[in-house]
Amino acid sequence: MITTNQIVNSKTIFTRQQDYFRSGATLPIDARKKTLRKLRTLLQDHETVLNEAIYKDLRKSSFETYATEIGLIFDEINVQLKSIKKWSRRTRVPTNMANIPGSSYIQPHPYGVSLVLGAWNYPYQLSLAPAIDALAAGNTVILKPSEIAPHSSNALAKLINEHFPKELFTVIEGDVDVASELLELPWDKIFFTGSPRVGKIVMKAAAEHLSDVTLELGGKSPALISDALSMDVAAKRIIWGKFTNCGQTCIAPDYALVHESVMDEMLLKFKEQIDEMYQSGQADEEYGRIINEEHFDRLVGYLNQGNIYTGGHHERADLWIEPTILTEVDESASVMQEEIFGPILPVIPFSNWDEALEKVRSKPHPLATYVFSNRKSEQNKASDELQFGGMTINDTMQHIANPNLPFGGVGNSGIGSYHGKWGFDAFSHYKSVQKKATWMDVPLKYPPYTSWKEKI
Ligand code: NAD
């Protein structure tokens, strides 16, 4: 529930950030670097507190937290620190005939006051990576992490609010009401991570003030498994990608399409890998939990929409759902229509590669697509012909870990991208500057347009 104080508070901070940005204080590169270095030190010094908080929300082990959250945040800080100076420079471009004598350049400029709305499934990475890009590009940031991961949200708020000036970088905690209030403000930039449903709400709010917007959304990311592949490696990498964070990953393989000739063997390999990776079942410290009862109930509802090949056990009191493989799933069932976002993998056979591609094309554009095939022709056909945010061939999720690749979706899975240079660009407007010399002035463009001018 939002309080009047919170509304006044967020408006006051917004105005302070506007004033701070307009003062030019965020423009010097050294100031931006200082902010990023300070954030890096803070995260290093408070890693234990952050680990404890996320464990309470998602039961994430500290290894997984480092590998999928903190480590990626350090990478993002380091990439930005290394390149801010270069990326902030003017880029000279050729000058066309009509502007000679003169020179021309393009210059990035921070948008201004930015709002970052985070999702709960990777509560640190999805909040801080965009904030880092925003600060690197010279913006101020108000960050609202997701209320669905309250311990992580609170740990972030304490860390940031105790150590950064509010006019530069602050965290406002809260639920949908707080998000809605924030969205009424005239932001220069809104960066949203979450569901396509809320993405539409955010975009409507952004339209009201013509705020620039980046939407990082979700969807059903397929894994296409050909008959030409190393089955052990494919099974290991798909099971890892699917069940990391209990399947609550925007780029987890949502469902698997398997060539019918290798279907039986692939299912066996999947089961072998689940047994190998999550040997201790419910007691497994390496396996997370579903975020809350609402999502738990939604996921359990999918379990009777197919044949449970392996898994299916669950316990509501512990928010635990066993890694589960579903077969014989009707493609019109909700488990094949909605983003699963949990530890359930429907496996569906196909008879030829074109049919598999057509199945993917029949759904909204996914955030990620995975191809497992040693045939170049199949790899290329999928990457050339399908529309998706990003792709990893012969593995899952790895494209997110390369800062030289933009990360983002298309259509239903998002608008815009970030990470590395793309993150810097997401928070920068590129100004066009045309400089003209004054020692020469072509009279042609000025009225009156007498007949000799028209003839030219
Ligand atoms: P969500 O859309 O419910 O919430 C995201 C944020 O929006 C939260 O901060 C929440 O407080 C706020 N919000 C919720 N309802 C709102 C409303 N009516 N008005 C204004 N703000 C509102 O998403 P979620 O459940 O936190 O995350 C799951 C979704 O996010 C999945 O679809 C997943 O695929 C997607 N996701 C995408 C990425 C990516 O990088 N593309 C990463 C993680 C998650």
UniProtKB/TrEMBL annotation:
Swiss-Prot/TrEMBL keywords: NAD, Oxidoreductase
Domain of life the protein comes from: Bacteria
Residue ranges the record marks as coiled coil: none
Every Aldehyde dehydrogenase domain range: 18-433
Single GO MF annotation: aldehyde dehydrogenase (NAD+) activity
InterPro entries, A to Z: Ald_DH/histidinol_DH (IPR016161), Ald_DH_C (IPR016163), Ald_DH_CS_CYS (IPR016160), Ald_DH_CS_GLU (IPR029510), Ald_DH_N (IPR016162), Aldehyde_DH_dom (IPR015590), Aldehyde_DH_NAD(P) (IPR012394)
Gene3D superfamilies associated with the record: Aldehyde Dehydrogenase, Chain A, domain 1, Aldehyde Dehydrogenase, Chain A, domain 2
GO biological process terms, semicolon-separated: aldehyde metabolic process
A Pfam family hit: Aldedh
Catalytic residue list: 216, 250
CDD domains reported for this sequence: ALDH_YwdH-P39616 (cd07136)
PANTHER family on file: ALDEHYDE DEHYDROGENASE (PTHR43570), ALDEHYDE DEHYDROGENASE TYPE III, ISOFORM Q (PTHR43570:SF16)
UniProt record similarity statement: Belongs to the aldehyde dehydrogenase family.
Name by which UniProt lists this protein: Aldehyde dehydrogenase
